[in-house]
Amino acid sequence: MPRIYILDTGVLVSTWTDKKVESLFVTTPNIIDEVRNRLSRFRAETLFLLEKMEERTPREDDVRRVESASTSSGDRSELSQNDIEIIALALTISGESSDVTLVSTDFAVLNTASHLGLKILDPNKKFGQEITWVMKCPACNYKSKAPTRETECPVCGTEMRRSPLKKRKIR
Ligand SMILES: [Zn+2]
């Protein structure tokens, strides 16, 4: 059985897939559209790759699981709908096969997936810590777990920023 890689946009337009000839690649229909509409130096190769790729839609309850996990991890405000769907697709396919890895270069995607216990791979090898984020006021240090980014501090009115609450080393 081939190893299954769930690919997000950044990986699709990179050359990472060139070395993985024996693998099966899967992504969502919306990411395929996003890549098709993007003018890329790797356009020809990418289009060829899209032909070899399986297209799947995640299960609805996996989408909700990702929304809830990304709210707890503090990544919700950083994720697009396509990001949420690709993590959810990794959950859906992990429920069916054992050798499933989500490949992404996006830290919010990798972080949420790590919180969900998914196998993850960062081709740039830069993602090394699983983080639980909170919103923190840079002026008075008030902390909040509210999922939105543009929250004003309820104490002093300063714009809050994302700040790490907990860190855990990966591998
Ligand atoms: Zn404040």
Short description:
By secondary structure, the protein is an alpha/beta fold. Helices cover 35% and strands 20% of the residues. It has helices at 9-12, 29-37, 43-51, 60-73, 81-94, 107-115, and strands at 4-7, 24-27, 54-55, 100-103, 120-121, 129-136, 143-144, 161-169.
Q: Which keywords apply here?
A:
2 domains; 171 residues; Rossmann fold; 3-stranded antiparallel beta sheet; binds zinc ion; 5-stranded parallel beta sheet; 6 helices
CATH topological fold name of the largest domain:
Rossmann fold
Between the first and last Cα atoms, what is the distance in angstroms? 25 Å
- Could you tell me which ligands this complex binds, including any ions or cofactors? zinc ion
Strand content: 15-25%
Task: Give the H and E element order.
Answer: EHEHHEHHEHEEEE
Strand line-up of the largest beta sheet:
3-2-1-4-5
- Main sheet attributes: strand count, strand direction, barrel closure: 5 strands, parallel
Query: Count of DSSP helices?
Result: 6
Helix percent reads 25-40%
| Count of beta strands | 8
Structural class: alpha/beta
Q: What is the CATH architecture descriptor of the largest domain? A: 3-Layer(aba) Sandwich
